[in-house]
Amino acid sequence: MTRRRRAVLLVGLALVLGAMSASDVAGREAALRRSLGPTVPVVVARTRLATGDRLDRRHLAVREVPSRYAPAASYGSVTALDGARAAAPIGPGEDVVPAAVDDGSRTAGAPVRPGERVAELVADGSPDLVRPGGRVDVLVTRERGDGRAGTTLALEDAEVLAAAPAPGEEAGQPAAARVAVSLRVTVRQAVYLAAAQSFARELRILPRAAGDRRHGLAGTTVGADLR
What pLDDT is stored for residue 169 in this prediction? Predict the structure, then answer.
């Protein structure tokens, strides 16, 4: 084989391998796009907003996010919020969800349907992950009769109406992964949660993934003797 023919073969092989590599990368990118789903527009706060601040183009922006990670309820354009105001504090970069928006149509009273109540509690949980419009589970840990602790999944898939970092236990002390939340619940659930704040050793909020509406774990109990 002549030197020229060998060079031609090597160039051809390099082109084939390059094409195969590019095809493999394109295939991986396509698979990733399919797993994430198409991107959708979501309105977010450009600056920090206090309750009552007007929601306009100076304070809002639109970002594209994979539909898999988009809030279950959100706004796709800034114009959809014309004339509205913040119904709760919204931090920079946070998604603007209906629970945090006052469009002027709200009437006096709590934002719940007939037969529902607003349960307010302070629990262990991340203020960065527990946000208005999201959904959470509630764990209750209490002492049992034998002196051991037991943890119960007391509430599943509750809608968060409002959320904020819990104040420090002492003046000037920062909160340590605790959050104050308002949840949409039934009357029975509201009574239980109110009592739990008195008898429970610990309350914990577990944020749920967007779109995860699975039920069936309520009542699950774990004792301190778990191995």
Answer: 44
| Contact by Cβ (8 Å): 120, 160 | no
Asked if 184 and 161 count as a contact pair (C-beta separation under 8 A), the reply is yes
**Shortest CA distance to 199 belongs to which of 121, 140, 125, 122?**
140
pLDDT digits (tens, 9 = 90+) for 97-136: 887 888 766 555 566 777 888 888 889 998 888 988 899 9
**Mean pLDDT along residues 140-155:** 79
Give the chain's domains with CATH numbers: 39-102 (3.90.1210.10), 116-223 (no CATH)
Rounded to 5 degrees, what angle do the CA atoms 111, 194, 189 make? Answer: 60
Are the C-beta atoms of 39 and 64 separated by less than 8 Å? yes
| CB of 158 closer than 8 Å to CB of 137 | yes
